[in-house]
Amino acid sequence: MACSATIQPLLNFELSHSHQPKRPYSLPLCSFIKKPRLSPKHFFSQSKDYTKINIFSSPSLFSRQKPGSHVAAQSDYSSGEEAESLLPDSAYQEPFSWSSVILPFLFPALGGLLFGYDIGATSGATISLQSPELSGTTWFNLSAIQLGLVVSGSLYGALLGSLLVYPIADSLGRRRELLIAALLYVLGGVLTAFAPGLSVLLVGRLLYGLGIGLAMHGAPLYIAETCPSQIRGTLISLKELFIVLGILLGYFVGSFQINAVGGWRYMYGCSAPVALLMGLGMWSLPPSPRWLILRAVQGKGSLQELKEKAILALSKLRGRAPGDAASEKQIEDTLISVKSAYMEQESEGNILEVFQGPSLKAFIIGGGLVLFQQITGQPSVLYYAGPILQSAGFSAAADATRLSVVVGLFKLLMTWIAVAKVDDLGRRPLLIGGVGGIALSLFLLCAYYKFLGEFPYVAVAALLLYVGCYQISFGPISWLMVSEIFPLRTRGKGISLAVLTNFGSNAIVTFAFSPLKELLGAENLFLLFGVIALISLLFVALYVPETKGLSLEEIESKILK
What is the pLDDT, as a whole number, of residue 73? Predict the structure, then answer.
């Protein structure tokens, strides 16, 4: 790999390419050097004697293979072997500076951090809110239904946000969507922090949830469409790391404010300054160049004007001079690619277009991953973390806030491992290995509750195995695949549908957990989750392709056609 999320590139700021690509593609928005003007130094930055390298005699450098030689690449890439054949023999990797990549990633990723923060803060806020001494209110005696609404209010808001954004995603735009999400985060956080009564508190939770729905849709879209293809996996996985960081931050704030009168107000209110920073940051960033091109091809504005805006946006994102020739060439290439995709389909789409043709195949892959992410028990397994650790004799388990911090730190560590390896190992190996580990951990938990109760460390090991395997597979990879698998034509609708699937299945699993636990018992519930995990492993092996190193246009033309 020419680039990975390591410290060294961050210090050097400029990526170098130490290997020669076998077959350079002119990747739209991912390669900004015109092929006729290529110099050997772009491919051999480590070499000093460039004159001895006769690169012009190599057909693999300056010529494409004929379309006929790509018959295999145009077929269905559902199987493992076929998916592996998609690894680019040589997709040309775009030189870029990390300094120009950081901000277009950071500000959208704050939307994920605020989502995670809500999860972490709520765990402490519900304790504070119900305390007669610490709530600072006269309405602290909440019923089970009222407490459930406080806890799940943001989840229902996220579901509503996903529904609302589905028909308007492409007209709204990625940047504008994230600006609205930041505004909703600020309003929700402030309203919740200063709520004089339960009804206002619930309205604040709903507004915050609307922000989550928009942010979890817009952030992966914006990051995927603006970053160089060779680090797309790293950056979108880093967004998952930001969610885990947010959870950990919420736990820390909760642990500091748990004994303060009205501490729940501080827990929820601390999100507002971060949301304000997110909004100001998104205001300073340009729109997604790919979105501008999409609007141009859809006839939603002047082609020339939108193309010029796209060139300026790309120049700013790459830290180059406004309207430079390299950016212009990339935009021209992408415009041709998008026009070609539209010529092969109906000129006008409809609201159900995501369920047709290549978009349906993308939704099966992306929607299937986020569905299995939830129904393998992710919202429920950590419910048993406290009892499991207590049975193993860990004194820290008596303190819920400390336990949460420990689990959060472990999640953070495993997510970082996934971030560091996703653009090196690829998506499929991490998914297959991680989901296999999830299945094993669930069967171990089943065995513990069935006949290994005398060996509590088996349960502890199974719990940590589950958390670790989830964070290197479903956690980051599901959202990465969702952000890159949909065609540009239906990417907005497709991702909003995937977000809706995620939050909807999360709500169902959370709601059904207690009744199922009473009906089946813990051992059989974990057995059920384990069987579902095996089915999800089969799904990954048969249907999920490898997209490592491919541009978004290549994914659309090779995998979905």
Answer: 34
Give the DSSP H or E segment for 558.
Answer: none
Whole-number Å distance between alpha carbons of 64 and 73: 14
Pair 235, 179: CB distance under 8 Å? no
Residue among 46, 424, 362, 45 at smallest CA distance from 230: 424
Which bin fits 39, alpha (ψ -120 to 50), beta or left (φ > 0)? Answer: beta
What is the mean predicted confidence (pLDDT) over 183-206?
Answer: 93
Q: How many whole angstroms separate alpha carbon 560 and alpha carbon 557?
A: 6
Q: What is the DSSP letter of 18?
A: -
Q: Pick 433 or 325 by higher pLDDT.
A: 433
| Arithmetic mean of pLDDT, 78-107 | 58
Answer whether 178's CB lies under 8 Å from 108's CB. Answer: yes
Provide the 3-class DSSP secondary structure of residue 13.
coil
**Average pLDDT of every residue of the chain:** 75
Q: Distance between CA 25 and CA 61 in Å, rounded?
A: 9
A 10 A CB-CB count for 379 gives 20
What helix, strand, coil percent values describe the chain, rounded to 5?
75, 0, 25
Alpha-carbon gap, residue 561 to 558, rounded angstroms: 6
**Which one-letter amino acid corresponds to residue 496?**
S
Where helices occur in 451-490 by DSSP H, the ranges are 456-472, 474-485
Residue 337's Cβ-side half-sphere holds a number of Cα atoms within 13 Å equal to 25
Domains and their CATH numbers in the chain: 97-285 (1.20.1250.20), 290-346 (no CATH), 351-560 (1.20.1250.20)
Helix intervals (H) in 98-231: 98-129, 144-165, 169-172, 174-193, 198-226
Residue type, 537: L
Within a 10 A sphere around the Cβ of 88, how many other Cβ atoms?
A: 22
Alpha helices in 227-261 (DSSP H): 232-257
Phi-psi region of 416 (alpha: psi -120 to 50; beta: other; left: phi over 0): alpha
pLDDT recorded at residue 443: 94
